[in-house]
Amino acid sequence: MGAAQERRDRIVVLGGGPGGYEAALAGAQLGAQVTLVERAGVGGAAVLTDVVPSKSLIATGGAAQAVRDASRLGVQAFVPGAAGKAVRPEIAVNLAAVNKRLLAMAGAQSLDMRESLEEAGVRIVQGSGRLDGPNAVIVSTSEGGGTDFDRIEADTIVVAVGASPRELDSAKPDGERILTWKQLYDLSDVPEHLIVVGSGVTGAEFANAYATLGSKVTLVSSREQVLPGEDPDAAAVIEHEFKRIGMKVMSKSRAESVERTETGVRVALADGRTVEGSHCLMAVGSIPNTAGLGLEEAGIELNESGHIRVNKVARTSVPSIYAAGDCTDFFPLASVASMQGRTAIMHALGDFVRPIDLRNVAANVFTHPEIATVGWNERTLAEASDVAKAVTHTIPLSTNPRAKMVGITDGFVKLFAWQASRTVIGGVIVADRASELIFPLALAVEHRLTVDQVASAFTVYPSLTGAITDAARAMHQSAQ
């Protein structure tokens, strides 16, 4: 730290999302002179229009669904009707109020992050930046009706510009009826019939959220099963839950175009069928915001999709330039972006750094129930031809005492371990708040614990975490 303070290393960070924020904060903490360039606000799209508001919307929908499902536990809500006859009330969702709360919360978090950076000594410039070679950035700011340009020299540059929703020419979003996930928060009423095109993580999460908020939802999936990138057993549980709450899932149905009608939208499928609804959400992936930034002119290598190629310490093909987040070819997760941003700065300033191992990354799909994963899985083991070297065990949550008490009937805990050493190498949890339950398995994978070491830890009885130790104990028994 002392050397960095003496040199006053000059760092410029493009983008204030999770990766850029952590890079700027780490640089300031290590004594560097840091400038952060951000167009919309600190936190970027992740805080303002993506992760924070979307997961809050999903939680709101989950709360509404929990009320509907309370009868499973014997809790029934009724109002008196004619002649005193009990009538079950409808659950009302004020979407305008919900969205107002979500956006206010996102704005408050952005402000908190900005204040943290300013207290650390980071200079924040609101504007757009592009590279001017490997050691300078040109920033354009619009103030007073004009545009000003400023050239900032840097010893280290971190590109963390994120990604945007992919748009199709045959289904152009209009912000009213045909929407991207960034435009959903302008809706004042719950859509009467929402058609979601795309059954990946984003499509599945929003389809689930709006179904629980009260919309009729049709999910158009080009694949045989929803969430094609997830554990097949986990995806099967989610698809079953989707259908239980009334969602229509159209598998192996590729959407070719979306057009406005007098009353809503019409989605044309490749097989000639059409689906009509009030609104359509296009969830067909994202594209990195790397165009027009001068990256290739500076010598930075991009892949075919426009993502920046980085190594395990977030360094690009240019030694003075690093990159973090969804604009890179790493996992598009906020947690990974944050780790990349901090790792990049620590490496640039000569601090101790551990290269990022993507096999140790915990991830989550925020449906109801959630899917949490870490480490190896069936697909990656098969691709690496290591399936025969691994063992797995699954514990259905229907056998777990705590799950029975709270009314959980679906979901499971699945563990993966090397056959010879019994070292835990991965896991899948499908449950309410699986994002919280995955942490013990993330620790086991990170620190190479054996199933016996996991099994020897005490868990509360009754608890859902008991299913983790049960699975680990079963794997020990299978070795005898």
UniProtKB/TrEMBL annotation:
Its cofactor is FAD. This is NAD(P)H dehydrogenase (quinone). Residues 10-341 form the FAD/NAD(P)-binding domain. Keywords: FAD, Flavoprotein, NAD, Oxidoreductase. GO terms for molecular function: flavin adenine dinucleotide binding; NAD(P)H dehydrogenase (quinone) activity. It catalyses: a quinone + NADPH + H(+) = a quinol + NADP(+); a quinone + NADH + H(+) = a quinol + NAD(+). The keyword Oxidoreductase applies. Homotetramer. It comes from the Bacteria. Signal peptide: none annotated. The gene is lpdA. Residues 362-471 form the Pyridine nucleotide-disulphide oxidoreductase dimerisation domain. The keyword RNA-binding does not apply. Its EC number is 1.6.5.2. It is an enzyme of class 1 (oxidoreductase). Pfam families: Pyr_redox_2, Pyr_redox_dim.
